[in-house]
From TrEMBL:
It comes from Kocuria rosea subsp. polaris. InterPro entries: PP2C, PPM-type-like_dom_sf, PPM-type_phosphatase-like_dom. This is Serine/threonine protein phosphatase. SUPFAM superfamilies: PP2C-like (SSF81606). It comes from the Bacteria. Gene3D superfamilies: PPM-type phosphatase domain. Residues 8-288 form the PPM-type phosphatase domain.
């Protein structure tokens, strides 16, 4: 049985050097954090991202001791709900550390994101939307788990566990990060079918065209993953204003070498500004710690 864990997080956000306003938004609690990147013009984009994180932050789901008591408000189900459920259950059960009840946690996260999608649609009438990526740290059947979700191209990464004899996050050749989410974008689709390489995708003229977003009235469905959570885990959530400026190797070095999450987030943001700051930049560094182990970093 895993000991209880909470999130100790630090965050930074900036409009960047070329944007008139900041359409990014973020939320951090002891059990959940998320980054949203609005789009659709500075006023509407700001509304969309703010509504997204406000809905997540206000949801009782992330505050309940027993998530099963949260009432699921079902979005429009997939065309084949039985097949959808079977696929999710099969994916979760590939890992023997993931309890069966995790499927219910996935349903509830999906429900909250659907509520955010509806709030944004009603507020901006399809004139804007937002990406979102987030993590929820919860306990099911005595096991601590990360529920990771995303819609769009904001990303969540994990600092890779240390190799025997190495420092935190170090593998062969130095620190390394693992991307936990998969972008919902045109170039990612082309990479997945073999028409583009990852290197070509970085400079493709349509690299910023996303295929899913909340609030647009079109495709909103998130991808959701459930992963074992362990004491000392370090995750990073960010908008594409960070990943478009910094290499994975640079981000990994900072995450592995700066112990305090707020300081790590600040260092990453300043590095993104120094290398161009062409977009809004938002980053959250989230550590899994025991309750009372540290004061909140945010």
């Amino acid at each position: 049985m895993s000991a209880p864990l909470v999130i100790r997080a630090g965050a930074s956000t900036d409009r960047g050097l070329r944007r008139e306003s900041n359409e990014d938004a973020l939320v951090v609690t002891a059990a959940m954090c998320a980054v949203a990147d609005g789009m659709g013009g500075h006023e509407a984009g700001e509304v969309a991202s703010a509504l997204c994180v406000r809905t997540l932050g206000a949801s009782p789901l992330f505050q309940l001791e027993d998530f099963r008591s949260f009432e699921v408000l079902e979005p429009e189900p997939p065309r084949d709900i039985a097949r959808f459920r079977a696929v999710v259950e099969r994916e979760l059960r590939l890992d023997p550390e993931i309890p069966d009840d995790a499927i219910e946690a996935v349903r509830r996260v999906r429900s909250v994101l659907w509520q955010a999608d509806q709030h944004i649609q009603h507020a901006v009438e399809g004139r804007a939307g937002t990406t979102v990526t987030g993590v929820w740290l919860l306990r099911i059947d005595g096991r601590m788990l990360w529920v990771v979700f995303n819609t769009g191209d904001s990303r969540t990464y994990r600092l890779v566990s240390p190799q025997p004899g190495g420092r935190a996050g170090e593998g062969e050749g130095g620190p390394r990060i693992e991307q936990l989410t998969v972008d919902h974008s045109e170039v990612q689709y082309l990479v997945s079918i073999g028409q583009l390489t990852a290197s070509q995708a970085l400079v493709h003229p349509r690299r910023n065209v996303i295929t899913r977003a909340l609030g647009t009235g079109q495709v909103w469905e998130p991808d959701v993953w459930v992963l074992p959570a362990r004491h000392g885990d370090r995750l990073m959530l960010c908008s594409d204003g960070l990943t478009n400026e910094l290499s994975p190797a640079h981000m990994a070095r900072v995450l592995a070498s700066v112990p305090h999450p707020k300081e790590a987030a600040d260092v990453l943001l300043q590095a993104a500004l120094r290398t161009g700051g062409r977009d809004n930049v938002t980053v959250i560094v989230a550590d899994a710690v025991r309750p009372g182990e540290y004061a909140p970093g945010f």
